[in-house]
Structure formats: C-alpha cells, structure tokens
C-alpha cells in the first residue's frame, strides 16, 4: 500500500471534494492528535475488524517511541511486552495505522520504511535533515521554505500536489568524529 500525503499550496480555493461512499478516517484530525488509540478503535470498528490486545500493544509502543520508527525497532520494543507478537502482525498493524491516517510511512534513501506518527506536534509541511553517516533524522519546519515553494509554483503556473524536502549530509557529531581513512593511517 502506498500512502500519499497531498498538500495543496495553491492560492485558489479548492473545489469541494466529490462525495465518497464512506470516509476512511475515523475521526477528525484534531481528535486523532489528542487520542490516537481512540481513533484506531473507531477505525477498526468502522472496518469491522476486531480490536486485539496485540494490536493495542503494537500501537501503544509505536506512539510511545516517537520519531521515525523502523519496523525492526518496533518489533524489538513490542516483544519486550509480548514475545509472541510476530513480525507479520507488526507489519499488518502498521499498515492499518497508515490506512487510518495515524502513521505515515517514510523512505529516506536507505531502502527501509520508517513510520512517523501523524499525531505528532508538527504540521503537514515539515521537512527532514538526514545524516548519511549515522542515519539520524532531524525534523524542521520553515515558513520561509514553504513561502518560497508557493512563490516558485505561482511563478511557473504550477499547482503543487505534495511536497517533500529531504536534505542529506553529515550531522555535527559525525563531522567531528575522525574519518575511518584517517584512523587507519
């Protein structure tokens, strides 16, 4: 499943969306930020899925971890609480969290999908600094970058559907650490 986040940055009001048979999101986004577990419960109920103890343990561990969580780290954390939880159950639960809008899958170039909670404090338009040495991911928001993107889109008659800014480089700690080639000499 591919989850696509669309951020409309045009200055013209968007036309009202066409009516859909059933909304996918269980509750309003603000309510999901306040209580993601309740939002998950409502989503499972709407989909006719059962609420299991394993799903609850996985979701609670995910929301407690914060940041950009790789599935293998989530599996390790969940197995501290319940060693019987399978890797497949964790993947299925993360797919459900993404489907109901509580988690956002991210790929940062290393090929591994990481999940980010959509109930976190930042807005839709946030960006990432990714260290190519240690893998550290730093989130930031910049109204100046957002304004520049809107201005560039307007100048070129372009309607932006989504945005993604990822800056790759080396963090301060990795830049201070001696290079492997230097220590071998």
Which percent band covers the strand fraction?
Answer: 5-15%
Number of strands: 6
- CATH second-level architecture of the domain at 50-120: Orthogonal Bundle
User: Outline, from the CA principal axes?
Assistant: flat
Rg calculated over all Cα atoms: 19 Å
**Which homologous superfamily in CATH is the superfamily of the domain at 50-120?**
Winged helix-like DNA-binding domain superfamily/Winged helix DNA-binding domain
Approximate helicity band: 40-55%
- End-to-end distance: 48 Å
Order of helices and strands: HHHEHHEEEEHEHH
Query: Mean pLDDT, nearest integer?
Result: 75
Q: Helix/strand/pairing class, anyone? A: alpha+beta
What's the CATH C level of the domain at 50-120?
Mainly Alpha
Which residues sit in consecutive blocks of at least 5 with pLDDT less than 50? 1-32
Q: In which order are the strands of the major sheet placed?
A: 1-3-2
User: How many distinct helices?
Assistant: 8
Q: CATH topology of the domain at 50-120, which one?
A: Arc Repressor Mutant, subunit A
Biggest sheet character? 3 strands, antiparallel
């Amino acid at each position: 499943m591919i989850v696509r986040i669309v951020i409309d940055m045009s200055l013209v009001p968007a036309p009202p969306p066409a009516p859909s048979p059933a909304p996918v999101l269980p509750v309003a986004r603000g309510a999901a930020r306040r209580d993601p577990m309740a939002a998950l419960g409502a989503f499972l109920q709407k989909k006719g899925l059962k609420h299991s103890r394993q799903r609850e343990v996985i979701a609670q561990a995910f929301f407690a971890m914060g940041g950009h969580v790789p599935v293998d780290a989530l599996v390790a954390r969940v197995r501290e609480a319940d060693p019987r939880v399978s890797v497949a159950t964790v993947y299925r639960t993360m797919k459900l969290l993404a489907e109901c809008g509580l988690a956002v899958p991210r790929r940062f170039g290393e090929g591994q999908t990481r999940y980010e909670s959509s109930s976190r404090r930042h807005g839709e338009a946030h960006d990432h600094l990714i260290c190519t040495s240690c893998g550290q991911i730093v989130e930031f928001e910049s109204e100046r970058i957002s304004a520049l993107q809107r201005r560039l889109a307007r100048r070129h008659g372009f309607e932006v559907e989504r945005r993604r800014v990822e800056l790759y480089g080396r963090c301060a700690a990795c830049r201070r650490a001696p290079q492997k080639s230097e220590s071998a000499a």
